[in-house]
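Annotators were shown the component list below and the corresponding predicted structure, then asked to write short factual statements about the assembly.
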Amino acid sequence: MRRRRWELISESLVEGLIRLCGVSAIIFVFGIFYFVFREGSGLLWGGRFSVFQFLTSIEWYPTSQSHVRYGALGLIAGTLSVTLLAMAIAVPFGVGAAIYVSEFCSPRAKETLKIVIELLAAIPSVVWGFIGLTVMNSLIIKLFNAPIGLNVLNGGVILALMSVPIIVSIGEDALKAVPDSYREAALALGATRWQMVRRVLLPAAKNGLLAAALLGVGRAVGETMAVLMATGHSIRIPTSPLDPVRTLTATIAAELGETAVGSDHYQVLFIIGILLFSITFVVNLGADLIVRGIRGKA
Amino acid sequence: MRKKRASIRRRLTAPLLATSIALSGLIASGCDRESETNHTNGRAQIVIQNIGSDTMVNLAQAWAEEYATVEPEVSVEVSGGGTGTGVAALINGTADIANCSRQMEPGEIAKVNVADGQKPKENIVGYDALAIFAHKDNPLEEITIERLAAIYSEKGQARSWADLGVQVPGCQSGEMILVSRQSNSGTYHYFREAILGKGVDFKLGTLDLHGSKDVVELVSRTPCAIGYSGMGYATPEVKMLRVARKPGEAAFAPNVENTQTGAYPIARPLYMYTRGDQKDAVKKYLSWIQSEAGQAIVRATGYVPIVKDAGLRAAVEQGAKRP
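Structure shown to annotators:
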């Protein structure tokens, strides 16, 4: 009897603990959002700060002694250009790899490939940045006769390599979710394997693949260390892939250490944080809604 | 189904086990280290926290290592991050000594004053010649302060190597790549004030790197680049330009002699700031740094030792402040 009661107590204890773990994620996300917002909001509503200037001016002079200007357009352009290039490379590669892993390769090759791809995801971003700084820099100067090898191309390639694992693993899941009866039906109708992939699988897994790409975008937008090292950290609106740029994340990483807590510069960096948070939130929400769409149908 | 679950469990436990072993190892070794520092020869270990300038981090590390043989019971922990980081740590009280490659600003001094009740103490511990680096294939040999301002300042007109009348082999576009430092760097602040002038900003589009060494590293790999960094970071892969105060005047190479005589125009004192009340160990460490033995290390690591002659010293510091 006593034992039964103890079991009941421990049962409810464990249940409560697990519930707390589940809820904690939500608490953390809202906590972080609240914190970032609180740190930045003083300036945002203070009147000294112009959101219009922030979004439309390229002049970023946070420590100027004569005329402080907070224009983040160059940084936004930097983030967008690097992300776009990264996705232009990573999406075809990632989706291609996902199709190969899920449809074409032998089970043995599949295991090896998956392990290697996971390994790619495990490389720390500083290491990627270091590769960009040393190997890719010289390579790009030699190959393209560029004045500098730390640029959009360098950062884009590195970010692409970093987001491919995400795209592959989620893309593969999406392809796996397509029922085998689809494949069997296509093959029974005399389609080749490629025709089956193109006409049946891709349309059926479209949403999942889109979600994979969007999560890749989220990874690319939020990445800091590698782009800090590989893109040159130079404020400008790029006109070619060989121009160096500076991203939103890299700016926060490079400048937050110096700012006095509560100063204007500190708060502007948090406003950049709010901007980044909104971008990744929208991207992740989009991906999530799309994935939910698939589940609803399946 | 059951089989599958078992395999998943096996897959999960292996890395879990590995991490827990690694963690317990870490904890154990951490404990070992702590007990070691506490009980060496029965004497207490005194730790001095030394944070700040990236320019000085090599030097500070060399001092700390040498001092460990002089005073074994004092251990000096050095970390970089930039002058601004060091000043912030001094304000927060997490650093005993802040390394600064520029003078502390009145606002920063006031903040230490508020936190500590006293003004920080300033110690000059050596000098650094700020060298202008170019790729080793660059035919340019010397440059004037005026030209540097035209290259780096917001309103400056020089944009390509052709504007300086040189053609750099390996740099086909001729575009000048300006390498600079991140804005919490003391070197950045010093360069802005000494070269561009008070209140003038850098050109947009400079590459703002995060370390003195990175600047030299990047310039050595990039024929189109020009950059500035402490002379101690020079490597055989880059060229240091001679610098002249005005067009037509003689240009001087960054070296110990030219810095000590005040001939090299962009040299600056290196500072170590402490709080007003400091441990005896910190006082002793600073006086050792300023002694013969400490200054020998300054020279050995590629910086410039303090000048002994008071008149000359004032001249150097004046020159450093007002090129």
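Statements collected:
1. The domain at 69-297 of chain A is CATH 1.10.3720.10 (MetI-like fold).
2. The first helix of chain A runs from residue 2 to 44.
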